[in-house]
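job 3f2a | input accepted
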Amino acid sequence: MRILVLNGSPHPSGNTKALVDAFRKGAESAGNEVVVCPVGTMNIKGCLGCEYCHTKGEGKCVQKDDMEKVYPELASADMVVFASSIHYFNFTAQMQSVITRFYAQMKPAAKKYAMILSSASPGVYSGLETLYKTMVGFFEGEDLGIKEVFGDDNKSDATLADLEAFGASIK
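job 3f2a | predicted structure (171 res):
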């Protein structure tokens, strides 16, 4: 299976990267191909709502930025994992921009999805759980799970082992 992980964290060496690395290690050990797009550090603007993609662009966005590197990965992925730190009860602004840009192609090709969230505090996930489940339903996909990590658990050995096992369970 080809798994695309969208890492929405703007911190290249932060907690989210450690969680993604553990998931990737497990998923690759199970024979999956894993591509990580560090969208949190890429130059990707949010959707303009201009409708170019649906009127003249034939599914291509009028904006020319790093999303052009993400679209081919989305088109060839069997599974998409949204990985993000929580910034004030939501995905990072960078991840939000990427998700709004899905609009050009309407739905990713993937049929399986998962989400990995990292924060400093418990109890900040319910809004994103609802958004994620709504997206997966709209994409007509299968939810393979949500992993939520907070505080000192972010880089703990137990958490990293859990994320590695989660990755290894993906077939």
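job 3f2a | Residues 2-168 form a domain with the Rossmann fold fold (CATH 3.40.50.360).
job 3f2a | closed
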